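User: Show me an example of a complex going from sequences to structure tokens.

Assistant: Sure. Here are the input components:
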Amino acid sequence: SQTIHQWPATLVQPVGSPLSLECTVEGTSNPNLYWYRQAAGRGLQLLFYSVGIGQISSEVPQNLSASRPQDRQFILSSKKLLLSDSGFYLCAWSVGTKHTDTQYFGPGTRLTVL
Amino acid sequence: AQKVTQAQTEISVVEKEDVTLDCVYETRDTTYYLFWYKQPPSGELVFLIRRNSFDEQNEISGRYSWNFQKSTSSFNFTITASQVVDSAVYFCALSGTGGGNKLTFGTGTQLKVEL
């Protein structure tokens, strides 16, 4: 069966510090991978998605970037965090050629920028 | 453009009551998919159901049931005999070519089930 991992689970970082969140998927090959952010009390916002190694699509211009160095690894990064980067970050995966396929989510990382 | 509206921000019920969560969507696509996810306090989104636009048959899974009506662009979710463990935020989502085949989420409904 497929599983998805995210770490760290929680993170408290000062403004201006760098960020690296990691997501890995097990039990499947060539997954589509997604990064979402959920601000407090709000819905989910798609940040990035990837259909293959090195292929990244950005949905929202911002302070963040994503990379996919391996087939089942997706990394979310920032060089300098802003207060507005605080939130709950969720990674998701799907298989298939269309984004209409079901997305399965990881446990999330709760980021607080102080 | 695609849009999902969950007008109920928060619902509180007493255990064993039935509760319906509303979801209204907008899309110009003829082929699209609708989803429901559950987000318990732990934060992880749990997939509940995926329904394509050509299948209007209602679905039942245990205490959960879904009513899909294209005529009113609604995909409502009913929990029968609610339990405290049902307390969570529930999200409705839509995916179709009009949205670039990406998931468009509603803002969620917070369900609180009390003893």
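The lines above are the inputs; the final block is the predicted structure for all two components together. The CA atoms of residues 33 and 69 of chain A lie 12 Å apart.
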